[in-house]
Amino acid sequence: MRAELAGEIEALRRRGIVPGLTVVLVGENPASQVYVRMKGKACEDAGMKSDTIRLPAETPEADLLALIDRLNADATVHGILMQLPLPKHINANRVLHRIRPDKDVDGFHPENVGKVSVGDPTGFRPATPYGVQQLLVRSGVETKGAHAVIVGRSNIVGRPMASLLLQDGPGGNATVTVCHSRTRDLPAVTRLADILIVAMGKAEFVTGDMVRPGAVVIDVGVNRVEDPTAPKGYRLVGDVAYEAAREVAAAITPVPGGVGPMTITMLLYNTVQAARQ
Ligand code: NDP
Fold this sequence. Notes:
The chain is of the alpha/beta class. It is built from 10 helices and 10 strands. Helices cover 39% and strands 17% of the residues. It is globular and about 50 Å long. Residues 128, 151-154, 156-158, 179-183, 186, 199-202, 220-223, 259-260, 263 line the site of NADPH dihydro-nicotinamide-adenine-dinucleotide phosphate.
């Protein structure tokens, strides 16, 4: 997919347009710092312009809004990404809603949420669920008529995932069930899934017996668990107990290495789409 994108970036560059992404990071959340670095590097590797603006954790909300206004007005900035989470004193919705919808490559502005929900292709699809959908399509997993069970209903993953799988088109037409913390008898529901997508943020919560034999499992979760034998003192695991689930699943994504790289790839796609539009 990144090779496909390279051709399109080259074509834009020949017209004098270099797709540009600006990432804004407020504070020093260690995981966010890693993600921001990876996003910047992916942009540069792809021949795009990338800028990262790092602000101290105590930045007032008004200053952040003023920065967004400047980026909104800057014609060389095609995409603006606010790295989440934001510090507690900042109203994340107010900030996300300030980003111009046509630069909102994360797809969190209500205008894009609405467009994606009604299947308007000019809306930006949030990178993580968009990446999951592409992973399914390009791995030849048929979503049409399949029962897709999503565990998690966040605005970042679960809800937009449901919208994408419901659409009438490739990677859509699934029968979708969305589960959350108040779902009664979660294992009984996950066992109905042809495609099980887990985005809970709970380390190895989904055990092998919660997976229907032959199901396709997409593990979105990224959790740090302590591990004194690991060089950094921790390792990353998903929301699914990988070894047990792979015994029963037809296919499963690993953590790290599955949904994460797809998320970054789709961010590049969205930035190129922003530049093109
Ligand atoms: P949130 O914390 O916003 O949402 C978690 C969801 O899981 C909620 O809807 C919650 O239900 C549900 N949930 C929690 N516990 C249970 C339970 N016991 N039974 C059923 N449902 C439960 O998380 P995000 O959606 O932002 O992220 C989910 C995971 O995905 C995290 O590990 C995150 O790090 C990872 N992630 C990975 C990305 C990538 O690029 N690979 C990108 C984005 C996220 P309720 O709403 O009822 O509280």
